[in-house]
Amino acid sequence: MAKSVKYILFNSKLTTVVSVSMVLVLLGITTIVLLMSKNLTDHVRENFIFKLTLKEGITQKTIDAVGDSLRVKPYIKEVNYVSKEQAVKIFAEELGEDPMESLDVNPLPNTYEVSLKAAQLTPDSLKNIEEELVSFKEITEVDYPHDLVDAFTRNVRAVSAVFLFLAGVLLVISFALINNTIRLLIYSDRFLIQTMKQVGATRSFIRKPYMRQGLIIGLIASGLAIVFIMLMLFCMGDLSSDISLFIDLQNKTLYAVTFAVILGSGILITELSTYLAVNKYLRQSLNTAYLI
């Protein structure tokens, strides 16, 4: 009989751990998807090209000095110099014929093509950056796809809001699922809790072993979820060339953030659920316990 009871208790705890770990895996995958969307968004942002037209007649030394000044700007990610000669070659490749065959003078200007860091592509930042770049006396014009950047920014905000909303909904659902699982586990001990109350045990004394149990369940479930996520990412590594645009599997931040979310959620939700479940049965009378 005693072995049967121990088996049932072990089996119920094992079921709880597996159930919680499955929910945490879902949270981990959601975190990875959010990081992937951010990585893709940053990649697109950093590929918007800003063309800076240089004044005619300035020396190569001055041009190089402008390039050095641009490269030290904290908001600029990359700077590429395109000379008049290079611009003609590019234009000829796109056009399919050399325009200089019918022209005596190269009409194309020397330019710098720069890309900004992803965090800088906001309307306010762009306005300040454009004003600062125009203030260079050697730069006559700053050109970039205004409409495309504005449309992309609006779309990113809308999609981010949807993702955050879905993540919030998932977090609430996860809490509800884990909370119900923990409550079912403690439900079997409701008469034991009533007995301890009858012999004068304090609430904190009764609650303590269950809180410890909730912590252990949270840690084990988090560990299982992390192992599953690691295996999933390892399998994704075979497709790294195909998914590198979306996510960098060598990025330690990916693992740190994902594992922190899983571990933090696992411990926080199981501990809170345990606290609420135990308190529920602590508030009940012995007669009420029979009615559940």
Summarize the structure.
This protein has 292 residues and is an alpha+beta fold.
Describe this structure in words.
The protein has 292 residues and is α+β, with helices and mostly antiparallel strands. The chain folds into two domains: 2-43 and 152-291, no CATH class; 49-144, Alpha-Beta Plaits, CATH 3.30.70. The protein has ten helices and four strands. The longest helix is centred in the N-terminal third of the chain and has 44 residues, at 2-45.
Low-pLDDT residue intervals, each spanning 5 or more residues: 1-10
Quickly count the domains. Answer: 2
What form results from the Cα inertia axes? rod-shaped
**In what range is the share of β-strand residues?**
5-15%
Sheet with the most strands: spatial strand order: 2-3-1-4
* Secondary structure tally, helices: 10
Q: Which structural category do the helix and sheet elements fall into?
A: alpha+beta
Question: Average pLDDT across residues?
Answer: 80
Largest sheet: 4 strands, antiparallel
Q: Descriptors for this entry?
A:
rod-shaped, disordered N terminus, 292 residues, four-stranded antiparallel β-sheet, 8% strand, alpha+beta, 2 domains, Alpha-Beta Plaits, 4 strands
